[in-house]
Specification:
With 272 residues, the protein is of the alpha/beta class. The strands form two sheets. Strands 2-1-3-8 form a four-stranded mixed beta sheet. Helix 4 links the parallel strand 1 and strand 2. Helix 1 packs across helix 4 and helix 2 runs antiparallel to helix 3. The chain is globular and about 55 Å long.
């Protein structure tokens, strides 16, 4: 496959993944929401969860975005060591996002951070990793502003309590990130490293095996009583993911990455 064909195939697959992520709620999320409806005892909470699923079904049927905030695409690229890529992945992703903006369509919401003037630049983020093999694996996560605004990072003292910081972050966010949420925690590394760890966890599946620490945090979050859409109930979060890394003995970096109920994601692979 020559350079131009390879690049165009990558762009086409990326647009398809963006369309899937924006319009099709993943099966693991749908199952978690269905289970939450059965477990809820709060009538208002049940109604909100049922409305969420109905919204997702209508969006899928019409092939339209399930939320008016079509979010920021975050791409996680796993590049095989034996793969041969003869084009700029960043430029190709920018082209794909630009085309998808018109095709799906996506909302144009990029602005200058200081002047707040509208910008036509495609808005997206990229995480990279290198793995074995000759394939390029691409996962896309759509991150809305409500959930991103609820995320937080702290450089804690080594003696401070991680659980308290996490619970306080979720409590202060209330209904703003459209709960029930998915919570990704990055613990350790550095100031920027813990944020990347936290964001990366959100690409995981909700039905993966939980650690005892993840279960404990999830139970404590759901005891807050914020509930679906902040209207009360026992389902404030659907899942907690934790990723740890060693850190300096004099610090404890912790990042909380919050994702809304619309846990929009899709994946594809290419052999290069």
């Amino acid at each position: 496959m020559n350079n131009a064909v390879q690049r165009e195939a990558f762009i086409s697959h990326t647009i398809d993944a963006l369309l899937e992520a924006e319009t099709q709620l993943p099966s693991d999320v749908r199952s978690a929401l269905t289970s939450a409806i059965k477990a809820e005892t709060n009538k208002r909470a049940k109604e909100q969860l049922q409305a969420i699923l109905e919204n997702a079904e209508l969006a899928a049927a019409a092939s339209l975005p399930m939320c008016q905030d079509t979010g920021i695409p975050v791409f996680f690229l796993e590049i095989g060591r034996r793969s041969s890529i003869d084009f700029s992945l960043k430029e190709a992703l920018a082209t794909a996002v630009q085309r998808a903006t018109d095709l799906i369509p996506l909302r144009k919401h990029a602005v200058d951070p200081i002047t707040r003037a509208n910008s036509d630049a495609p808005l997206f983020d990229i995480l990279y990793d290198v793995c074995d093999g000759d394939e390029l694996s691409v996962a896309v996560l759509i991150k809305g502003a409500g959930s991103e605004n609820a995320s937080a990072l702290a450089m804690l003292e080594p003696t401070q309590d991680v659980m308290s910081f996490v619970l306080n972050t979720i409590w202060e966010s209330g209904g703003k990130p459209c709960p029930p949420v998915i919570v990704g925690l990055g613990i350790g590394s550095t100031f920027d490293g813990c944020a990347r760890l936290a964001k990366k966890t959100l690409f995981r599946y909700l039905n993966e095996k939980e650690s005892a620490f993840e279960v404990e945090i999830l139970e404590n979050i759901n005891k807050l009583g914020i509930g679906p859409m902040g209207l009360g109930g026992r389902t404030t979060a659907l899942r907690v993911f934790v990723e740890k890394a060693p850190c300096h003995t004099a610090m404890l970096p912790v990042a909380v990455a919050v994702q809304c109920w619309a846990d929009r994601k899709a994946r594809f692979r290419m052999k290069l």
